[in-house]
C-alpha cells in the first residue's frame, strides 16, 4: 500500500518516535538562568549581546527547511509588533548550510520583522552542534523546532514551548502576572510524563515485534492513560491488534475512530479501511467489519473524486473480500492506471492483487 496509507503509518511512527526522542538529562528548565546568547552574527535587527536586567526577551529557534517554522514566522512578527519593548530573537539552528539563511530572511522581508541571528557553529561542527543548539535546545530537551523561550526580567527562563502557543504566557510575563511556580510544576509533570512515554515507546516496539496483539493493546492503553491525545493517532494500530483478538470490539473502535478527525479525511478513512482488509491484518475480518471497510473506503474514494491510487487499491480489496470480484478487478485496474499516471512507478503489491482477483474470476 502507498501514498495515503504510508502517510498514516508515518504519523503513527512519529507519535511513538517523538516520545523517545531523547534520553539525555534535562539541564535547563523553567526558573533557571537563561544561557548566554552565543550567535555567529545578526542577520536582521539591532544585535543583542546579553540579556539586560529589567527587560523581557523572546528567543525562538527555527530553520529554513522547517515547514512549521515558516508557518509560525508571521505570528512571531505579529507578537513583536504587539510587544515592541520585548526584543524577539529568531536563532537559526540545525542548518546544513548556513549560507542559505540570509537570502531566506531577505526574501521573507516584512513577514519576518524581528531580530534574526545565526547559531554559532564551528567550522568542523554539524548543524546541530552549534553553541545555542547545545546550551538551549539540547539542554532543555527541546527536540523539535520551532521552539520559543521567554526570558523574564530576572534573566530566567519563564516559559518554553511552541511559538504558536506563546500568546497567553507572553502576555502574563509582560504584565507581571505570570505564575512561574505553577508553570514549573506543570513543566515537571510534562518531563515526568515524557520519561514514562520513553519507556512505554520501547515496550510498544517490543510488543509489536513479538507479534502478540494482546501485548500491543496493553501498552497502547498504558500510553493513552499518560497521553490521552495519542488515542486517535494510535487508533489504527489498536484497531489492527483488536481484529486479531476481538472483532466485535474492533468494529466498535472503528466506528468510534470514524467520528474523530481520522474519519474526516480521505487518508484517515483509507487507513481505517486498510487496517481491516489489508494483507497485514492477519485474521480474516468478519462480515460486519468488511461491510464497514467497504463503506468507508467508498466514501474515501468519493472524497478524492476517484483519483487516488492508494484509496482505489483499498476499495478494490474491500470489494474482493466482500465477494464482488468484478468490481474489485475494475477498481484495481483504475488504481494501477492512476499510479502510472502519477509518475510514482509501478507497485508490485497492486499488480499482485490484480492477478489474484483475475484468478478468482476464472
Structural class: alpha/beta
Sheet having the most strands = 6 strands, mixed
The global form is elongated
Q: What is the beta-strand fraction?
A: 5-15%
- Spatial ordering of strands, largest sheet: 1-4-3-2-5-6
**Rg, alpha carbons:** 25 Å
Low-confidence stretches: 1-15, 17-23
Number of helices: 15
Rounded average pLDDT: 90
CATH architecture of the largest domain: Alpha Horseshoe
Count of structural domains:
2
- CATH T-level fold name of the largest domain: Serine Threonine Protein Phosphatase 5, Tetratricopeptide repeat
- The end-to-end distance, rounded to whole angstroms, is 25 Å
The CATH H-level homologous superfamily of the largest domain: Tetratricopeptide repeat domain
Q: What percent of the residues sit in helical stretches (DSSP H or I)? A: 40-55%
How many distinct beta strands? 6
Name of the CATH first level of the largest domain: Mainly Alpha
Order of helices and strands: HEEHEHEHEEHHHHHHHHHHH
